[in-house]
Amino acid sequence: MLSDDELLRYSRQILMPKFDVAGQERLKGARVLVIGAGGLGCPVALYLGAAGVGQLTLVDDDDIELANLQRQIGFEQGQLGQSKAEALAERVRRINPLVSVTALNQRLEGDALTRRVNEASLVVDCSDNFNTRFTLNRACVAARVPLVSGAAIRGEGQLSVYDSRVKGSPCYHCLYPEQGNEDLTCSEAGVIAPLVGMIGAAQAMEAIKVISGVGKPLIGRLLILDAWDMQWREMKLARDPECPVCKPS
Hints:
The protein is an alpha/beta fold. Helices cover about 40% and strands about 20% of the residues.
């Protein structure tokens, strides 16, 4: 049940006939795990918090550095050296005190990762390395928790949704083999600032669609952005019948 304050705060979302009060109540009841509080994680956390996701858990073991401020819009000059997860969580709380935000200043691995994924309604992957992405994908497939995945480098970004609850849908491993992928980081290749905002905002939108049940999420589809030419392309994704992660037993 939404309070009077919530009805007013979220009125512009509730006004939409397809979304309505029911969609807002689903957001309020959701538990979203965000892995990474950097360029993608900042807009994801800010938009999901502002939109009224009931419980957010933000995970990142890094501290804020000067080079982050060009694109990581959740942080300020005076926060250099602070924990990214804790600083971003506090920013979300200041925007919307009606939501619960937990900061984990650590790298989730093993049983701790498994437990957090199992507790979540949805996971948003805002990480910047393949090892984390593959590990998170395996945990989400095992727990049957939907995963919203995004990536951004240079002037190029991509986005998809992996949901093992949907029969025949692919997982992240169906798209990328675990061997042969080498991480290319922003510190090595560069990234244009608004790109991470565009992909992060799109991840937040996909998360809201999956949670609310409104709209058509990017399940079985990969969206690719060339920001310099401002061209979006869509690729169809099929499940790999031999995928070691999501292959039916």
